[in-house]
Design brief:
The chain contains nine helices and two strands. By secondary structure, it is mostly helical. About 25% of the residues are buried. This is Alpha/beta hydrolase.
Length: about 160
């Protein structure tokens, strides 16, 4: 959901100028220790801004941000979350996915563009489904829980 297979992301990051621009934050995320320090400093000011969707105010609902910050502030939690992004660095090899996979992507995602989203299919050898949610941003579970649940239940029903 939202973020594609790490190899698909790497291909798009290298080849698509739009994806490179959308990913301007990623170099910070790749810096173990520093990213955690920056995101949690000043009562997690930067993490809160990221979760809120920034100036667009199109992210996680305001009433949930404190809970997200509390969870991500627990020892090791933010590092665990950032490790997904660290797996997308160019020196990390991730094998193709062999199990049935449904990738849910939203067309208003500010971090992941269409090139990366569509490239995900190239790194799945099992049965693959691509579900696009129009008008939704990066925060799919918070903004489109019914559509996400439907995609999950559809996958389970045919597994």
């Amino acid at each position: 959901m939202s973020v594609p297979h790490p190899a698909a992301y790497t291909v798009a990051y290298r080849a698509d100028p739009e994806q490179k621009e959308r990913s301007s934050y990623i170099r910070l995320f790749w810096q173990a220790g520093k990213a955690e320090e920056v995101l949690l400093a000043d009562d997690a000011r930067r993490l809160r801004r990221m979760l809120s969707g920034g100036e667009q105010d199109s992210g996680v609902p305001a009433e949930a941000i404190d809970e997200y910050v509390a969870v991500l502030s627990a020892p090791g939690a933010l590092t665990a979350a950032l490790n997904w992004y660290r797996a997308m660095s160019s020196d990390t090899r991730v094998d193709p996915v062999e199990v049935p996979t449904t990738y849910v992507w939203s067309d208003q995602d500010m971090a992941i563009g269409r090139t990366a989203a569509e490239a995900c299919a190239n790194f799945v050898t099992g049965d693959y489904r691509f579900v696009e949610l129009p008008g939704i941003t990066h925060w799919i579970p918070e903004q489109a829980p019914e559509q996400l649940t439907r995609a999950i239940l559809d996958r389970i029903a045919t597994a």
